[in-house]
Amino acid sequence: MLTGYVEKILKARVYDVAIETPLDLMPRLSKRLDNQILIKREDLQSVFSFKLRGAYNRMSHLTEAERIQGVVAASAGNHAQGVALAANKMGISAVIVMPVTTPPIKVEAVRMLGAEITLHGNSYDEAFDYAKQVSTDQGRVFIHPYDDPLVIAGQGTIAMEIMRQHPDPVYAVFIPVGGGGLLAGMAAYIKAIWPEIKIIAVEPADAASLKAALDAGERVKLDQVGLFADGTAVRQVGEEPFRIAQKTVDHVVTVETDEICAAIMDVFDDTRSIAEPSGALSIAGAKKYIQQNGLHNKTMVVINSGANMNFDRLRHVAERAEIGERREVLFAATIDEQPGSFQRFCKALADRGITEFNYRYADNQQAHVFVGVRMSGREEERQILFENLTQAGYQWIDFTDNEMAKLHVRYMVGGHAPQAENERLIRFEFPERPGALLRFLTHIGQRWNISLFHYRNHGAAYGRVLVGIQVTPEFNEEFQAFLDNLGYVYWLETDNPAYDLFLK
Which fold has domain 2-46+149-322? Predict the structure, then answer.
């Protein structure tokens, strides 16, 4: 069975449109993990994804009559671009059915390659069904994204390149899984050549259709899938990929959204390129597998399968990457509502870097603050932090794994506080360096009561803080002199209409 696929892969027609992508060392990640991590750069393909390999190989086998009729495919992203590029190269007509929810940037990318776009349905499944109907009605050949032997063989050429680029057998190859075409092609080739190499499939924890199928011994359809790693958000693994996976996959690793975000950051740190969530999936899986199994001095291959990232998603990735690396802990703490309490609380954090500090006055006895603290990544450091807070008399709740707190509450700490009388709102900038926030609070938190505080470290040269301070009218001149002598750039925001509408 595997040797049959080896022959198909060796004969695959992909290099009319694809390039042989490099297999590069990830030096920073390798040093940190104490293993040699080699990354296959499929993000460097002309459509920023491996998908053009399988699409072109399948379409290169069309008969002359089929070429005249044209092709149809359903996809919201990389497969659509692969089919469109192949059709453009071959001079044949292509219809791509995309869900109406597809981001405009992806629709335009396919249209620029010359394909006809049809927007239909709110999900991939609806677009898929409609594309099959178009195939029947117009006589077009349907190009499946993963459940086709020729597509699988085209994707398998990646494994052929890896074996040529690294002739000695590696310990393991980590392969991202959606429908399973990439996994099937690569696993069939690798296991036929070097059966001792471990094949580790990696799936998003909220779209683990292969793991569910392997556990059940048959393909199952998930009720729903998460959409963060949209390139692998498939409810059911393909029939042919599953058949091959049953014979070749040694282990399946599932990873969470935060772990994927951390892997995107790892790819950027080592290559200065941005992987899409599915593109960074195997990197996240390798990190997790190495940690779980205590591996050292092994050589492993990961696949950057794509770089079709929407720019507006980078904000979310940046926010979650440190948490995914366990280099940031988020928690709520209760402190006394009185001048100087912020400063004392920061001292209790033992000079750890503060990444976030959110607070709004609500009660004259106690204050609830939302805090982010930088960690080294060691779990025991997190335990020590909370033990220190407990010993200092603070009540706390760990929010690091609380999805609602991370997605929403951190941005909603605040609201109107009519009891915060004589409040002045000031926006500050100060040089961002270790201990800068504590020094800022030392200056400002002894004389005046702080009624609102918002700070988030964004890795910039300057820290930005929004502060509410209660100042009675008789101290106006003294407070103004205090601001002038403080030495920080500031803006008075008390008359800002946003303050009146949401915070005052």
Answer: Rossmann fold (3.40.50)
Q: How far apart are CA 444 and CA 469, in angstroms?
A: 9
> Which sequence spans correspond to the domains of the chain?
2-46+149-322, 51-142, 326-502
**169 vs 187: CA distance, rounded Å:** 14
The verdict on whether 51 is a catalytic residue reads yes
CATH of 51-142, one of 3.40.50.2000, 3.20.20.70, 3.40.50.1100, 3.40.50.1240: 3.40.50.1100
Residues in Cβ contact with 190 at an 8 Å cutoff, skipping those fewer than 6 apart? 159, 162, 163, 173, 197, 199, 248
Q: Which residue type does 488 have? A: Y
User: Residue 170 is which amino acid?
Assistant: V
Question: At 136, phi and psi to the nearest 5?
Answer: -70, -45
- Out of 51, 211, 287, 288, which one is annotated catalytic? 51
Asked if 19 contacts 44 with a C-beta cutoff of 8 angstroms, the reply is: yes
Tens digit of each residue's pLDDT, the chain (504 residues): 678 999 999 999 999 999 999 999 999 999 999 999 999 999 999 999 999 999 999 999 999 999 999 999 998 789 999 999 999 999 999 999 988 877 777 788 899 999 999 999 877 788 899 999 999 999 999 999 999 999 999 999 999 999 999 999 999 999 999 999 999 999 999 999 999 999 999 999 999 999 999 999 999 999 888 878 888 888 999 999 999 999 999 999 999 999 999 999 999 999 999 999 999 999 999 999 999 999 999 999 999 999 988 787 888 888 788 778 888 888 888 888 777 787 788 788 877 788 888 878 777 788 788 888 888 777 788 888 898 889 888 989 898 888 778 877 777 677 777 788 888 888 887 776 666 667 777 776 567 788 888 877 666 566 778 888 888 899 888 888 888 887 778 888 888 887 887 778
Which member of 75, 305, 341, 451 is catalytic?
Answer: 305
Q: How far is CA 206 from CA 197, 202, 229, 230, 461, in A?
A: 27, 12, 9, 11, 37
Is 247 labeled as catalytic in the residue annotation? no
- Please give the span between the terminal C-alpha atoms of the chain, in angstroms, as a whole number: 70
